[in-house]
Specification:
The chain has 398 residues and is α+β, with helices and mostly antiparallel strands. Helix content is 30%, strand content 33%. It is globular, with a radius of gyration of 23 Å.
């Protein structure tokens, strides 16, 4: 049964919306301005609650007034009113502690107290758009809906789809720009031909303002997920260092971080050809190509593609993944460093699904429940240790 727009929004807010459902939600929001306004209010309400929980600086009186208004008069969104009112109520409690109390009680002399370890928040939507001449434009989820790129191009900044470049300006000269996403960030955008690109943390994509000639080409480092617009006359080629992925129209993930020992291409739909300097392999849906940078060997295998593309849907999905690989992923998303007190912990495997919007301590607590390790956070360093139970078991066996 097809979902209602209210159900789509509810699923989006709890993080269970697939990419296909997100596309359908975007279409429905475009058709219903009232739903679009409620959706923006709901997202901002959740952001306010998160900011208050983390002790971030916010203009509470103004912000809270907006969310009370958002919760009260959207009559046609009755299925979501309870959720929004709950958020507003929780925000009110936190706002009372951060806003009302200082107005009632006079300031007291500062006292020395133990400082608790701050919560390490997840990454967020942020990127830098950089022109060839060095000019830059900083972009976040709070940026205006219409932006002027460094080269003068007018671009739309959509809350669901990210950046969308004008596809009608075919007469202008080809100019290249780069979208840089830092550690602790992610972003998404649509290329001039309609191809959609999700850019993960510590990644960059270099692309033209329009595609000219017989091939569509972009350059990347880091990790991207793509849904390439079909154009049989002009194949799409993604370059990374001296390697490339050639497609006609498909959905795939490419991970090629500088310094990593492997370059991994995962095909969801369609067909791609992965090539290095000497050889090429063709993939079918559900297959993955792994290039060993040290030996130059390319291995192909069948995989559960969701394990390698779930990040683009706001999830971390793991299946017997070594903690070393998980730590590398979490390092980029939470801007932390992992230290393994014993190298043997690197191979410990974890299976589970967590939301990318959760704080780091919550993610680590989930991993602790099914592995024989514990995590100790000091500043932005995470020490991976053996749990007491595991240590006791080890001693009893000897």
């Amino acid at each position: 049964m097809k979902k209602t727009i209210e159900e789509y929004i509810a699923d989006y807010m709890v993080g269970t919306l697939s990419r296909e459902e997100a596309a359908e939600l975007h279409r429905l929001l475009q058709e219903d301005p009232e739903a679009g306004r409620f959706f923006r209010d709901a997202r901002e309400a959740e952001s306010l609650l998160r900011a208050l929980k983390l002790g971030e600086s916010v203009q509470v009186p103004l912000a809270y007034a907006r969310y009370v208004e958002a919760a009260g008069h959207r009559r046609r969104m009755r299925r979501l009113r309870r959720w929004t009112i709950g958020v507003a109520a929780a925000a009110a409690v936190l706002a009372g502690a951060l806003w009302i109390t200082p107005l009632v009680n006079p300031p007291e002399p500062a006292v020395v107290a133990t400082v608790e370890q701050p919560v390490i928040a997840p990454g967020e939507l942020k990127a830098t758009l950089r022109a060839e001449n060095g000019q830059t434009l900083e972009i976040t989820s709070a940026s205006a809906s219409r932006l002027v790129a460094p080269d003068g191009t007018i671009i739309e900044n959509d809350s669901l789809e990210g950046l969308r470049f004008d596809r009608s300006r075919t007469e202008e000269a080809v100019a290249w720009q780069t979208l840089d996403v830092p550690v602790g960030g992610e972003y998404r955008f649509a290329l001039p031909d309609g191809t959609r690109v999700w850019v993960n943390s510590a990644s960059s994509v270099r692309f033209p303002n329009r595609f000219a000639g017989e091939r569509r080409e972009i350059y990347m480092t880091g990790e991207i997920y793509m849904e390439v617009a079909h154009d049989a006359a002009r194949p799409f080629i993604v370059h990374t260092d001296d390697k490339s992925v050639r497609v006609l129209g498909t959905k795939f993930n490419l991970m090629a971080y500088p310094g990593d020992r492997e370059v991994v291409t995962t095909l969801v739909e369609g067909s791609v050809e992965f090539c290095d300097r000497t050889k090429c392999v063709r993939l079918q849906p559900g297959e993955q190509a792994i290039l060993d940078e040290a030996t130059g060997a390319i291995e192909t295998r069948e995989v559960n593609t969701a394990l390698y593309t779930s990040w683009a849907s706001g999830m971390f999905e793991y299946e017997n993944m070594p903690l070393e690989d998980i730590a590398r992923q979490l390092t980029r998303w939470y801007d932390v460093q992992f230290v393994f007190d014993d190298p043997v912990f690197r191979a410990h495997a974890f299976t589970g699904v967590v939301k990318r919007t959760q704080t780091l301590d919550k993610v680590l607590s989930l991993i602790e429940k099914t592995t024989n390790v514990s995590f100790e956070i000091t500043g932005r360093t995470v020490h991976v240790k053996r749990t007491e139970d595991a240590a006791n078991t080890s001693r009893s066996d000897n």
